[in-house]
Amino acid sequence: MMIRWIGYEFLAMVRSRAMKIFSALFIILSITLTGCDRVPFTGPKGGVALIDLDDIAKRLGRDVAIVQELKDAGGPLSDQVNAAQKEYQAEFDRSRDSIGSRPSDADNQKLAELGSKLNLQLQQKQQQAQQELNAKRVALVSRFREEIKPVALKIAARKGLGVVLLKSDMVVLGSEAGLDITDEVVAELIKTGAGSPPLPASSMTP
What is the pLDDT of residues 124-157, one digit of tens each? Predict the structure, then answer.
């Protein structure tokens, strides 16, 4: 009974952890462009303009593109973790079967130690996969922010403003009319072929 329980416990744990880790990984696919860095875009003049980077990504269809790139990167990582889980489970099963139906206390202890070791190895595989996917996300978001930066600074400069703050990174309680240049940034990017035409307000999810 003891040996069956240990085998079941290990199998349940590895499956549960594999599922949880990739559920957590794909939660971040609901893209938010905050948290990668909080440095405002700055130019040579004074004054502050505002942009909503999340809104820009959504209206240009870039949020969908980034999500797809993350999914493409996450698929092989998920496969690697699943392959490791099967390998570790097979190793555990072989060790259990070699003991036979009448394990001694020492056998049970040995099997329990093996289960703990394999669980630890699987956790390390999962953590590595999560780190790789997080790094990919940061790189994609940073690339998008750098693409937006010169356009936002150019539009801000036309208005005599030298700093562009990201509304996504802070709580904006109020601003003067004309300081939010999000619409102008979207229009400029569409004009230069960086995105598709903006979605009608009625079709955008709140």
Answer: 999 999 999 999 999 998 899 899 999 999 999 8
Radius of gyration of the chain (CA): 25
CA dist., res. 152 & res. 163, Å (int): 9
In a 3-state reduction of DSSP, which class is residue 35? coil
From edge to edge, which strands make up the β-sheet containing 48-51? 41-42, 163-166, 48-51
| pTM for this predicted structure | 0.66
Alpha helix (H) ranges present in 32-61?
A: 53-60
The answer to whether 45 and 162 are in contact (CB under 8 A) is yes
Query: How open is the CA angle 92-94-99, to the nearest 5 degrees?
Result: 100
Exposed, middle or buried: residue 35 (CB in 10 Å: 0-12, 13-18, 19+)? exposed
In sequence order, what are the beta bridge partners of 48?
A: 163
Q: Is 8 exposed, middle or buried, given 0-12, 13-18 or 19+ CB atoms closer than 10 A? A: exposed
